[in-house]
Amino acid sequence: MIRLLAFLLPILILAGCSVDRGAERPAPAPVAAEEAAASHILVAWAGSRDCPPTVTRSREDALERARQIAVMLRTGRGEFGALARKYSDDATAVRNEGYLGAFRRGEMDPLFEVTVFKLTPGAVSEPIETEYGWHIVRREEVRRARAHHILVAWREAAKAAAGVARDRDEARKVADALRRQAVAPGADLCDLALKYSDDPHSRLECGDLGWLEPGMLEKDVDAVLFRLAPSEVSPVLETEYGFHIFWRE
């Protein structure tokens, strides 16, 4: 497998030619010299690991396609995330634009790992091959945020828990009221999470979501979360679970 030890929140779903990333959260440690992060565009071929029957191209055709994508990147004819969404055979790329997260030495396919550690952040590789197919790899900066939240669910949200009675309009009003309380001077965010959050797993722990990386939450949430200063409270944000108020530790 590409990744031997990794993590995911329940929000993320892997399918098709996706890389197997497990279900473990990253350790809350500072970035180490032996740690890197990467994004990739996967070009699978018939017979490569975990690809669906719809992938019929040969290994040679896959390599040529990967080379063409690499040329597009080098000549500025496409941004990496947009090309990942369009061309990658990793099913998660539609959501995370090919971002694989941070890893240490020994956690990835050896050739993939060697390639990443040779790159400088922002640099893109030539196509390399693993059992999943051909990859164009970009090294990323390692970024993490320790995040907390209050969830206000509504009954028809895609991932709403059973038994939620309020409708979307009511949930939005509750979320807006909680956000006003959260930004008030002297607000106790842990107490607000304990009393009002609909996330049963985090409400007893000050709404703690652990250490998050780009790509673990929805793109619009990432864009806000990673701009927050420590202790800053986000605006009300919506996901498939309902409305959220986030803050960084």
What descriptors fit this protein?
single chain; 249 residues; alpha+beta; Chitinase A, domain 3; 2 domains; four-stranded antiparallel beta sheet; 7 helices; 27% helix; elongated; disordered N terminus
Description of the molecule:
The protein is an alpha+beta fold. The chain folds into two domains: 106 residues, Roll (Chitinase A, domain 3), CATH 3.10.50; 104 residues, Chitinase A, domain 3 (Roll), CATH 3.10.50. Helix content is 27%, strand content 20%. It has seven helices and eight strands, in the order E-H-H-H-E-H-E-E-E-H-H-E-H-E-E. Strands 2-1-4-3 form a four-stranded antiparallel beta sheet, with helices on both faces. A four-stranded antiparallel beta sheet has the order 6-5-8-7, sandwiched between helices.
